Amino acid sequence: MAGEPAILYRGKRYPVKVGEDVLSQLLMAGADIQYLCMGGSCGTCRVTVVSGSEHVDPMDPGEHYHIPGDGPDRLACQMICRATGDVAITQRGRGEPLR
Ligand code: FES
């Protein structure tokens, strides 16, 4: 981790706000990320957590309905940041995270 906790996405660092979801924070910062409903029902914001999954809240049952199992994928609109460290994500077709 370098400096303040951040979301690492498409080669950039986006500062993290505790208690806010990843999608909202990326959109507010002008990031290019796919989404539709912002409510956990469409699955369009699905991302893969490359590292730092311990720095976001675990899935709730509603998110598990869309993403069964314990793999690295999450819904960015349902992934709440703890701001305890960096979270690196990637979205299919949207480039690689900053390492
Ligand atoms: S934007 Fe629809 S589930 Fe996240």
Question: In order across it, which strands form the biggest sheet?
Answer: 2-1-5-3-4
Separation, N- and C-terminal Cα atoms: 10 Å
| Model regions low in confidence, pLDDT < 50 over at least 5 residues | none
Number of domains: 1
The helix/strand class is alpha+beta
The bound ligands are: FE2/S2 (inorganic) cluster
User: How large is the radius of gyration?
Assistant: 12 Å
Largest sheet: 5 strands, mixed
Helix/strand order: EEHEHEE
What is the CATH architecture assignment? Roll
Shape: globular
Count the strands?
Answer: 5
Estimate percent helicity: 10-25%
Q: Treating each run of at least 4 consecutive H or I residues as one helix, how many helices?
A: 2
CATH topology: Ubiquitin-like (UB roll)
Average pLDDT, rounded to a whole number, is: 91
In the CATH hierarchy, what is the superfamily?
A: Beta-grasp domain
Molecular structure report:
By secondary structure, the chain is an alpha+beta fold. Strand 1 (6-9) and strand 2 (12-15) form a beta hairpin. Strands 2-1-5-3-4 form a five-stranded mixed sheet, with helices on one face. The longest helix has 7 residues, at 22-28. It has helices spanning 22-28, 61-66; strands at residues 6-9, 12-15, 46-51, 73-75, 87-90. It is built from two helices and five strands; from the N terminus they run ββαβαββ. Residues 35-38, 40-45, 75, 77 line the site of FE2/S2 (inorganic) cluster.
